[in-house]
Amino acid sequence: MKDFEDILSGFDGDDPTVSENATTYSEPLDIDGDGVYDGVAIYEDFNGDGIFDSATAWVDTNSDGIHDFVSVYHDQNGDGVIDYSLTAADVDTDGDGIVDSVFLGEDTNGDTVFETTEIMDADEWEMFTSNMDGDYVPMDADGGFSAGYEQFDPSQTNMDQVVGTPTADEHCWEYQGESGPCAIYAQVMAYEGMTGQDVDPQQMIDVATENGWYNGSGTSMEDMDKILNYLGAETETGMGGDIDDLQECLENGGRIVVAIDGNEIWYGNTETFAPNDPNHAVEVIGIDYSGEEPMIIINDSGTIDGHAIMVPESQFMDAWEDSGRYYVEAYV
Amino acid sequence: MLSIQDFLKKINTNSVVRENIPMGLGMSFPVLNITGDRLLVSVFYYRTILRPNDQTLLMPPEYFLTFDYPSAKLTSFQSLRLDSRYSKMNFGKPVGTFRHDAVKHLDRNGYRQMKTELFDVLNRLIAYLGDEGEFTQKDEEKLSQLYSMITEPSLHPFYKAISPKFFERYIEKEQN
């Protein structure tokens, strides 16, 4: 199977990773090299920074004139490295020569290995695609995060008024995908921020699964510190935390993982809401006191562009209240 | 009297939920069970995968929990993934989408308001059951109307499973 690099190498001349003021760019592809175009690649620059951050390849693998393979690649944190991809391909599961299902694979960390795969029949595919007009998180017309929060920008604030190291810690952020290992990702991000070490979240999911801290559906609040302990960090958990606890932990070089109502953070400023308010683990990476209201800066693995999101203190406290303001402080 | 809102907060932050319910799963609306002289509150926990434009996915419930009211002591805990009666259920497949027709006209505040109204009338029923207040025919009809409207039809089988009598009286009746 071709990958993203193969698609890029299919271009001659201009470097397709540079948008040169174009927000989209498309080129025909000859994936099998037989001199006949069998697909098209579409590059998109969502944030207008001149670098394409998404590429989609549509390919006709069996030369019947119909695109039967599509792969989408994203650079979510703008570091120039593909860190998310989704692939869909027609498959014939019973070998009768007729396509009857769709294979769907998701690589949520850019390691080129699918963390989740699924074979969908026609009904399931229809249900899935009928929901494709939205996404797991709200996207605006240009594909950016649109829950109404800004992302932390050190050039736009007085850094003397900022607690923690959000500029460095946001690089530890990774997207968890549409599954439930938020607490594991939050712990991994916290550990990486403290130590500078690179930890594979998937490996930690395996460890958590083996130890009963993750059941494929999620992690309970009581197990929200187990991976940190496994990695060697010391932790302290508690209920009823407040902004002073967050500040003190960050000032002492620690990191803090909190359980909040995720919907309130993701969709608090949008029209979208849900019938219930589930808890969700995020890492607090800083507090910005420079404005009228303190802004809590979080790394949220459940949001496709969730690094260094700034949430007003009042909204953060509302969301935190739902878990009884449960927190894990971590130190190495 | 402990309000149902405070009771739900109490159970959502107690050790049973903290230790056993994975984050990411949210609570259903509460329904009541009466066993002997005890009032019990039952809920289930399920995941929602949020998407705009009324396409939020409702995943199958994974846990049924029942608590004594008002102590919030756990009286039963059922993990559906480990229950043979639900062995054929695909927990990765949505059972429906939110919002359904009866609440489609509501925005976030309207939905929240309806929840508040539901809990207010439910508080009157709980008070009445504890000999602490009145519960009129009008309240009965109002509670039935609100439960029928606000609960997701695709989740009704699960509401019925955790409290058949309450379901028949306050959710199913209004629909027939």
| Count of the separate structural domains of chain B | 1
Give the total of beta strands of chain A.
Answer: 15
Estimated share of beta-strand residues of chain B: 15-25%
CATH fold descriptor of the largest domain in chain A: Cathepsin B, Chain A
> Termini distance of chain A?
42 Å
What class, by secondary structure content of chain A? Answer: alpha+beta
Shape of chain A: globular
Question: How many domains make up the 3D coordinates of chain A?
Answer: 2
Mean pLDDT of chain B: 91
Which regions of chain B contain 5 or more consecutive residues with pLDDT less than 50?
Answer: none
- Estimate the global geometry of chain B from the Cα principal axes: globular
Give the secondary structure arrangement, pairings included:
The complex is a heterodimer of chains A (332) and B (176).
Chain A: H1 4-9, E1 24-29, E2 39-44, E3 54-59, E4 69-74, E5 84-91, E6 101-107, E7 116-121, H2 122-130, E8 150-151, E9 162-164, H3 166-169, H4 182-195, H5 201-211, H6 226-231, E10 234-238, H7 243-251, E11 255-261, H8 262-267, E12 279-288, E13 295-299, E14 309-312, H9 313-321, E15 327-331
Antiparallel strand pairs in A: 1-2, 2-3, 3-4, 4-5, 5-6, 6-7, 8-14, 9-12, 10-15, 11-12, 11-15, 12-13, 13-14
Chain B: H1 4-12, H2 15-20, E1 25-27, E2 31-35, E3 38-49, E4 56-58, E5 63-68, E6 74-79, E7 96-98, H3 108-129, H4 137-150, H5 156-162, H6 164-175
Helix pairs in contact in B: 3-4, 4-6, 5-6
Key attributes of the depicted protein:
heterodimer; A: 332 residues; alpha+beta; Cathepsin B, Chain A; 2 domains; 8-stranded antiparallel beta sheet; 7-stranded antiparallel beta sheet; 9 helices; 26% strand; globular; disordered N terminus; B: 176 residues; 40% helix; 22% strand
Describe, in plain words, how this protein is organized in 3D.
The complex is a heterodimer of chains A (332) and B (176). Chain A folds into two domains: 127 residues, no CATH class; 182 residues, Alpha-Beta Complex (Cathepsin B, Chain A), CATH 3.90.70.10. In chain A, 22% of the residues lie in helices and 26% in strands. In chain A, strands 8, 9, 10, 11, 12, 13, 14 and 15 form an eight-stranded antiparallel sheet that branches. The two termini of chain A are 42 Å apart. Chain B has one domain. Chain B is 40% helix and 22% strand. In chain B, strands 1, 2, 3, 4, 5, 6 and 7 form a seven-stranded antiparallel sheet that branches. With 176 residues, chain B is of the alpha+beta class. Chain B has six helices and seven strands; from the N terminus they run ααβββββββαααα. Chains A and B meet through helix 2, helix 8 and strand 12 of A and helix 2, strand 1, strand 3 and strand 4 of B.
